[in-house]
Structure formats: structure tokens, C-alpha cells
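User:
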Amino acid sequence: MPCRGARKHTPIVSKKQRGLFGAELARRRKGLKGRMAGITTEELESHLEESKGKKLPKKKRYSRYV
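Assistant: Predicted structure:
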């Protein structure tokens, strides 16, 4: 359960982000200190499971002229 006032994490939206989340999960499974303090291991696993099998863009692009 996240601490009070913590915002909910958004789903994975790019391949790069999936790689970062996967690396963080691998670090934690090895017993090393993680770099993402604001997210639990269960949340990492659920986000990775949600993005599994989806075709994601390499990078999330934001248009200046929307």
C-alpha cells in the first residue's frame, strides 16, 4: 500500500520505460538496492505484466503543436 499522499504510478508507455522497470525489478530480485524508491516490487511486476505482449513505441513523443 503506498504511503499517504503518494500518487499512483502510470502504466508503461514505451520500450525504454519497460527496460528501466525490468532492470529495476532484476536489481531487487538479486537483493541489490533499487534506484526507484517510490514504487514497490509488486507494482513493478504488475506494470510489467500489463505491458507484456503490447507493441510499444520506442519513445513517447509529445507534439509541440497540439
